[in-house]
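Final report, Chapter 2: Outcomes

The project's central promise was a pipeline that accepts a single protein chain and returns its three-dimensional structure in a standardized token representation, suitable for archiving and comparison. That pipeline is now operational. To close this chapter, we reproduce one record exactly as it appears in the project archive, with the input sequence first and the structure output second.
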Amino acid sequence: MKAGELRLSGGATRFLEGSATYNIEGGKPVVKYASVAGRGNLTLDQPTVSATLGNAKCIWELRLPNDVPLDLAVDFGAGEAKLNAGSISLRSVEVRMGAGRLDMDLRGDPRRSYDVRVRGGVGEAVIRLPKNVGISAKATGGLGSINVTGLRKEGDHWINDAYDRAGRTIHVDVQGGIGEISLIAN
């Protein structure tokens, strides 16, 4: 998504459900699906966005199924992404953001260990993590602050109390440019 607001959550009964609300040229998502060797690749793309002033609006509200193992990759240029993905059966998460705000909630009961990688430009990233699984997080930023709640510093990363005894872990790697990074484990 080049510009707009992305809202993603679990709970879909089909592979993808949702809606797109837009009043700008290029706001409609282009959906593509391909399957190779039994593994599917679903892509939603915003090919172009016209420079519109005033009441420009582009909102994608998407739902994914909870029970299908997924590698989630989100790339958004300018805007806001609200990813409520804690109920989704994640294998990995990768987020690339240009300018804006990321609010990613991974709280839930993951079925497996997975890695989360966030690369940010200018803005704010808030990542909420579950407390019932092991968390190992690393966060670095250019200009701005890094706020950590519910994790303790160990060397160059943060871990939670469950990390040493957990059967499942989430490894988080966040690199920000200019702005604020918040890691919240609760």
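Archive annotation: Residues 95 and 118 are 5 Å apart (CA to CA).
This record, like all others produced under the grant, will remain available to the consortium after the project formally closes.
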